[in-house]
From TrEMBL:
Coiled-coil zones: none
Top-level taxonomic group: Bacteria
Organism: Candidatus Shapirobacteria bacterium GW2011_GWE1_38_92
Pfam families given in the database record: Hydrolase (PF00702)
Protein's UniProt name: HAD family hydrolase
Any one GO MF annotation of this record: phosphatase activity
InterPro entries reported in the protein's UniProt record: HAD-like_hydrolase, HAD-like_sf, HAD_sf, PGP-like_dom2
Length: 267
């Protein structure tokens, strides 16, 4: 926990954990649990890193006009900038490599090859993060309504949904997809919570790995900080553009299986 809260440290059976979590939700007015997807439920950063590393290797071998590190620096720079203008739309890799081509004189064949390697990100089967499946099983047993908020596009989200057999935990109709060309801003979170999940922000528990895209926008529109859970320790490195400070009241845990311990606050 990130702040000093009353916290029962004795043994609880699985059923007692479920009951305590539901009571914690009742005490805090929570009617809806909303989870981020990427790097909260499923491993995503690792997929990006693997394909980006393969891209750097490809360019260093096929186009040694720059070193591998120099290719990496240029692609990372333009990827960070294109995220601001194109969100998570896969088309941004074409934009990135077009800019790199203009700067370096990279030939069109190798430019297309790099885009193809980066595009494989969206065809790679996703795996659960440690503790994620156990956390989802726990939430289902509590009977609390569960939803997902993601700004990956429909095709990629459906692909990941099928890979992880998420129908066991969250119905497809309870997956809210933000505009892939935009960002998970306060305005977009407000739209998703109020219009899609049909609940007031102060009635939500928000769980995500990004202070910029999940935690802080949710707090800004009225989700209570103590009902926000920041997933901080999945063995992946948080993309620098997502790093922001969060209020002390925000709960921190390494993975969503830690949600089972929130009920200890009300025992």
């Amino acid at each position: 926990m990130s702040e000093k809260v009353r916290y029962f440290e004795g043994y609880l059976s699985p059923v007692e954990e479920e009951l305590a979590f539901v009571e914690r939700c009742r005490v805090n007015g929570v009617k809806q649990i909303i989870l981020d997807w990427d790097d909260t439920i499923g491993k995503t950063v690792g997929i990006f890193k693997k394909q980006m590393d393969r891209c750097y290797d490809f360019l260093a071998e096929r186009a040694p006009i720059l070193s591998r590190e120099e290719w990496r620096e240029r692609i990372v720079f333009h990827n960070n900038n294109s995220f601001e203008t194109h969100g998570v739309n896969p088309i941004r890799w074409s934009v990135v490599m077009d800019l790199v081509q203009r700067e370096t004189g990279l030939d069109k064949k190798n430019t297309r090859g790099a885009v193809k390697i980066l595009g494989h990100i969206y065809k790679t089967r996703q795996e659960f993060l440690p503790g994620a499946e156990e956390g989802l099983q726990f939430l289902v047993k509590t009977g609390m309504p569960i939803g997902i908020g993601t700004h990956a596009n429909w095709d990629w989200t459906r692909f990941k949904y099928n890979c992880l057999k998420m129908h066991r935990y969250v119905p497809w109709d309870d997956v809210y997809i933000f505009d892939e060309n935009g960002h998970k801003t306060p305005k977009e979170w407000d739209k998703g919570i109020r219009k899609y999940f049909k609940v007031r922000p102060e009635r939500c528990m928000l769980v995500g790995d990004s202070p910029r895209s999940d935690i802080n926008p949710a707090i800004e529109i009225g989700v209570r900080a103590e009902n926000c859970v920041w997933i901080t320790g999945n063995g992946t490195e948080l993309w620098s553009i997502h790093q922001q400070a969060v209020p002390a009241e925000v709960r921190r845990m390494s993975n969503i299986n830690g949600l089972r311990n929130l009920g200890r606050e009300v025992i």
